[in-house]
Amino acid sequence: MTTIRRRTLLPMPFIAAWGASATAAAPDWDAVTAAANGQGRVNILHNTPPPLGDLWMAEFHKTFPQIQVEATRLGSSELMQRFNTENAAGVSQTDVVMTLWDDTLLKWSTDGWIRTWTPPEAAAFDPQYKVRDQIYVVQLIRASMVSSKTRIREADAPREWVDFFNPKWKDRIGMDPPWRSVAVQEMLAYWNQMGMKDVAQRLKANGVRFFNGSAGVVQAVIRGDIWVAAVIDPPVIAALGDDAPIRAVFPESGIPAIATTMFVPAKAPNAEAGMVFLNWAMSAAGQKQFLDIAGAPVTRPGVGSPKLVPGIEGQKIILSTILLNPDNQKAIIDEWRSVFGLQ
Q1: 176 and 49, same structural domain?
Q2: Start-to-end C-alpha separation, the chain
Q3: Residue 71: beta bridge partners?
Q4: Residue 240 sits in a domain of what CATH number?
Q5: What distances in angstroms separate CA 98 from CA 14, 76, 137, 283, one per listed residue?
Q6: d(CA 199, CA 270)
Q7: Based on the domain organization, do 37 and 118 belong to the same domain?
Q8: d(CA 6, CA 131)
């Protein structure tokens, strides 16, 4: 039976660049699977919202009934602290870590805290979703543009990021403030990369409104407080699942995205069980289960699209590692605080 220990999920920053790939020998997979079944358990440290993580991990246990799943869900800062504490002491109680990207992962990699290996299923993935043959991207959180179906006709709905600045939406546009959201910072960095200038001043002139968190932004669109919003897609998917009168668009010009990553610690007590779980998570079956349960896009090609939003195939995905670094994050926050008088 799957054991879940739950704590609070907090957003994690995503600001580092991918590192170079290491050389990893392919494991003897039959031997790995046999060892994993002999170990009989896998300890997963993650920050996937309930009940999605619980349901997905239960599907793994159905496929590998000899391996019991013990999962601990922590907020991002708690997760980082726990893993740091364990590995600094030279031990680990964790067999798999699943978390949003953070530059700390590269430090852990450099410090030798992450196992270097190549899951058999990794061959199906785009190289940008494999980091140093250690860290693997299994799912994405994308930026999207949302509009109200009750306030805006389909023919008039915004389709591209530049449409967010249209004066006809004055005082009817909203977003999470960038000084509280790394996801917004990456979107603004991409707009800058596209050549958009003076974004903060232009949106202030267009009456942009700020709401508490991405879910708060989506609820404001549903209520009609605003008609158009730029927001990450998890709360959009949830609202669409509740038949909310909103539409979601993923602009063809490019879509900033945050990675959900997985890795096996170098000192995992049940390393083979961790390897089997991560490989299953990258398999067509594991990816399809995640897609169906979470309703969110996964990174393996050919798995299909979520029910309520498009998949990533054919989309121009720009990972946040390309867009953000500590210097431009600070510049974005400082500019917006200055423009909106929040020093």
Answers
A1: no
A2: 51
A3: 4, 44
A4: 3.40.190.10
A5: 14, 10, 9, 16
A6: 50
A7: yes
A8: 28
Q: Smallest Cα–Cα separation from 164: which of 191, 195, 193? A: 191
Are residues 34 and 179 part of one domain? no
Cα–Cα distance between 113 and 98 in angstroms, integer?
Answer: 15
Instruction: Round to whole Å and give the CA distance between 175 and 212.
Output: 9
pLDDT at 103: 82
- Spans of the chain below 70 pLDDT: 1-25, 343
The pLDDT, as a whole number, for residue 323 is 87
In sequence order, which residues have a C-beta less than 8 Å from that of residue 333 and are 6 or more positions away?
A: 178, 179, 185
CA–CA gap between residue 235 and residue 247 (Å, rounded): 12
- Residue pair 44/282 in contact (Cβ under 8 Å)? The answer is no
ω into 265 cis (within 30 of 0): no
**Residue found by looking up tokens 């430090």 in the block:** 107
Angle at 331 between CA 327 and CA 332, to 5 degrees: 120
Neighbours of 208 (CB within 10 A): 25
Q: What is the 3-class SS of 223-241, one letter each residue?
A: HCCCCEEEEEHHHHHHHHH
pLDDT at res. 90: 87
Residues 6+ positions from 218 with CB-CB distance below 8 Å: 146, 229, 231, 235, 236, 238, 239, 244, 246
Distance, CA of 139 to CA of 74 (rounded, Å): 19
Helix (H, G, I), strand (E, B) or coil at 168: helix
Domain of residue 134, residue span: 3-140+257-311
Q: Are residues 10 and 133 in the same domain?
A: yes
Give the pLDDT confidence score for residue 7 in this predicted structure. Answer: 33
The Cα diameter of the chain in Å comes to 64
Q: What is the pLDDT of residue 102?
A: 84
- Residue whose structure tokens are 């900033």: 256
Q: What is the pLDDT of residue 272?
A: 98
**Which tokens is 297 given?**
């896009």
Amino acid identity, residue 234?
P
> For the chain, how many residues are written?
343
Give residue 24's pLDDT.
60
Helix (H) / strand (E) containing 97:
strand 96-100
